[in-house]
Amino acid sequence: METGSSTFPPYLAARIRARRSRGCCVGGGCLPELLKQVHWGETLQSLLQQFDGAATQLPRSLDFGDSYADVVLHGETIGGAPVVTFFQMDKRTRGLKRIQLERPRRGVNPPALRAISAALQADYGRPDKICLTPVSPIGGYQAAAQEVWVRGTDAISAIYRDTTLQAFEGCLFGVASGYCGLTGQLLVRISPADGIAEPDPCFLTNQRG
Q: Pick from 119, 171, 184, 194: most CB atoms within 10 A?
């Protein structure tokens, strides 16, 4: 297990380490079932056809750095927690590069975190790696944690980013501007085992040495 420094907020670290025997994905094994329906490098047209009306094509693509998403899938759940599924397409090949299942921002809370973590462990067992990133400039003053599973040719990452009250440097009038820090985020990323995104907490932990 890899962790950040001892300044990592203890309450968020405790959430990651807390486990529940319940909280499995509604319907059982949602992520493994989703992975059976897609393949890496798949085209936009193939995804739309595969999900037969359940997937929505966005009017404008969402940029994810090394990829973009113009197809989303609503109605998926992990551990009973509703998530929005983004199919991230490689900017170079235009094929499926990564799948991101994200909890709506207003639904990021400890019960959802525990439910999603428990469901992933029910499907994949204990994580191969856990990384904790403390509040620091390199992380945008946002504490984060990541659980990573590598199963066959796929990598599954659960990422939890805490709401920060310290990122006021970008505010026009500092604290007087009101709340302008980074909001909490709870997501699961699935990619080929050699395609884990670099901005993830485990990458930042390794960069600090």
A: 119
Q: What is the pLDDT of residues 104-139, one digit of tens each?
A: 878 888 888 889 999 999 999 999 999 887 766 655
Residue ranges of the domains in the chain?
10-193
* pTM reported for the whole predicted model: 0.73
At what angle are helices 10-17 and 110-124 packed, to 10 degrees?
40
Whole-angstrom distance, CA of residue 1 vs CA of residue 87: 29
CA distances to 60, 116, 178 from 19, rounded to whole Å, are 39, 10, 35
Identify the bridge partners of residue 81 per DSSP, sorted by sequence position: 78
The token pair at 80 is 């009973």
- Which residue, among 106, 118, 107, has the nearest Cα to 16 in the 3D structure? 118
- Other CB atoms within a 10 A radius of the CB of residue 86 amount to 23
Q: 50-102 pLDDT, tens per residue?
A: 888 888 899 999 999 999 999 999 888 999 999 999 999 999 999 999 999 99
For position 145, what pLDDT does the model report?
Answer: 86
Residue 151 DSSP one-character state: E
Q: Is 14 helix (H, G, I), strand (E, B) or coil?
A: helix
Tokens representing residue 158 in the block: 């659960």
